[in-house]
Amino acid sequence: MKIFRNILFAAQCVAFAPAAAMAQDAIAVAEPNWASGRAMAALVSVVIESKLGQQVEIVPGANAVIFAGMDRGKGEIDVHPDVWLPNLESLRKEFIEEKQTVRLSENYYTGFSAFCALREFAEANNITSVFDLATPEAAALFDKDGDGMGEIWVGAPGWTSTNQNLVKVRDYGIANFFEPVQTEEQVASASFSSAMERGEGAVFYCYAPHYNWFVFDMIRLEEPPFDPEHYVMVNPNEDPAWFEKSKITVGDQDKTVHVAYSASLEERAPLVAEFLSRIAMDTDTVNAFTNEIVVKGRAPREVAEEWVAANSERIDEWLGL
């Protein structure tokens, strides 16, 4: 039976290939500027090229730009490979629920986000909670430039989570003692490594899956449990006064991470759309991907090709075989 399905699928690929080639030369897969985003972009690209025979173009971009491209449906950007919810809830609501120009994969992997600290330094100084940071003594411990304020990395510029963390740092009272730092992830990770080598501390936004869990011995700082009544986040695209109107005094809820794609693919490249609707990754695999790519310095495509070659039955399930 499976052989018959494989033959049928191959016939479908041949039948659709001319139409797909006429519609566009390549599927444009976005590459977000975080580790799991790069990993998932590589995986999606390798499957589309090696299993569906469709060319792929990798397009770096921020979330709002990616969703706008998928919304237009012209092939500028066709796929967002790593959509974190509820972080991107406003974009989900606008483009998936209201406009219905973007689709979301049925399956997802799970993640979380929080604040972390390097374990040895934090435990030596009794730093176990976010509220332990809201003191002059804690500020002095993490003051690297001598200005009287500690530093806490809240994320990269343009991340939705960075805005959320800015609100949390303010509402936890940390901003009275710590300067929120926004910089690219690779730069931040390098600073954590330097601090650890010097026996110093660092506090920072952390999430999983992520390669830092392979690199640093770090602890997740305690926060009040998630409660929607105490987690009010207004996004910049919704209101210029988003910061003043937001209020967050609890930790984040766990995340679900999906693949999103332009609804136009259902006509322009139906086999690609079908695959994207079915893709199902898991947290451990994505975590391992980020370690191979960032820590070991391997090319994302090389890691993805190796994994796809070793997991043919799983890929077949995604392809409906």
How many domain modules?
A: 2
Q: What is the average of the pLDDT values?
A: 91
End-to-end distance: 10 Å
Portion in beta strands? 15-25%
Computed CA radius of gyration, to the nearest angstrom = 21 Å
What is the CATH class designation of the largest domain? Answer: Alpha Beta
Number of helices: 15
Order of helices and strands: HEHEHEHEEHHEHEHEHEEHEEHHHHH
What's the CATH superfamily of the largest domain, by name? Periplasmic binding protein-like II
Q: Total number of β-strand segments?
A: 12
The CATH topology name of the largest domain reads D-Maltodextrin-Binding Protein, domain 2
Examine the secondary-structure arrangement and name the CATH architecture of the largest domain: 3-Layer(aba) Sandwich
Shape type: globular
Structural class: alpha/beta
Q: Which stretches are poorly predicted, pLDDT < 50 over at least 5 residues?
A: 1-23
Q: How much helix is in the residues?
A: 40-55%
Could you give a short account of the major beta sheet? 8 strands, mixed
Architecture overview:
This protein has 321 residues and is of the alpha/beta class. It folds into 2 domains: 2-110 and 256-318, Periplasmic binding protein-like II (D-Maltodextrin-Binding Protein, domain 2), CATH 3.40.190; 111-248, 3-Layer(aba) Sandwich (D-Maltodextrin-Binding Protein, domain 2), CATH 3.40.190. 46% of the residues lie in helices and 19% in strands. It contains 15 helices and 12 strands. The strands form 3 sheets. Strands 3, 4, 5, 6, 7, 8, 9 and 12 form an 8-stranded mixed beta sheet that branches. It has a two-stranded parallel sheet with strand order 1-2. Helix 2 (35-52) links the parallel strand 1 and strand 2. Helix 2 (35-52) packs across helix 13 and helix 2 packs across helix 14. The longest helix has 22 residues, at 2-23. The protein starts with a helix and ends with a helix. The model is unreliable at 1-23 (pLDDT under 50).
